[in-house]
Fold these 2 entries.
Entry 1:
Amino acid sequence: MSQRLIKRIEAVDFLISARKTGTPTSFARRLNISERALYRLLEEMKELGAPISYCKLRRSYYYTEEGRFYAGFKKSVSPVRSYATELPVISQEPVFYESMA
């Protein structure tokens, strides 16, 4: 997924969450894409689980459920485990082996 597509999805998500998309024509113009490209993008977001609908009265898209659309890496709250801290401690004393003569 390209960085440009992710930014476009984030813009769509922001405007849908704010219920300030306007009509499909104005929404597409605002995103600098064709109306057909807007419909494809919305359909892809729906296929990924976004509950998007359109209100003719308000002339805006909206989410039918509370939530946000994320299309990227989200950092974990817990720190990443370091394999170096999990390795056994090796004795610093030299080890001498007896010859088997």
Entry 2:
Amino acid sequence: MVATMIIDDVINDLVAFAKRHHIIIKFLKMPSGMRSLAFIKQKFIIINTNCPESQLPFKIAHELGHVLLESDDRIFHSKSMDNRFSSEGTANDVALHLLIKFYLDECEEYNLNSVQPIMEQLHIAPKFLAKVQRITKECLTH
């Protein structure tokens, strides 16, 4: 139940963030396996909701990453987000930053000794463990 509340809160935070940046998000139940889409110039995102709810935050944040990285009002820039990475990889980096920030905002307190709760509750793939640890530490120390 707590995990579902956090997922809902993070989704709400992502949608509010999109609105503040004049990005429109449309949620549609499309055929299984059909990917979510980001129309960068139009600042318009379509999220396929035909998946477990726990996957939605990463999908939303990832598509936001595409729009934010390509728009004129870029708000994300870090050493890990440069030309060496593909647009998919860079969108994943933005997604992780957004998800972790909003997750930590929803938690009353968080122990940095383990990022497993973040990864499990937000359905973040194990391949991102090192990045999640680094970003979580950055968020908690700034």
